[in-house]
Amino acid sequence: MPNQQGFTLLELLITLAIIAILMSLGAFNLQSFFIKNQQITAVNQLLDALSFARHNAITRHVAVSLCPTLNNQHCDKEWRQGYMVFINQLNDIEPNPTHILAIYPNKTASIEINNSREIITFQPSGQSPNSNSTFIISAPNSNESIVTKLILNTKGRIAVEYVE
Question: Which domain holds residue 52?
Answer without folding.
Answer: 11-163
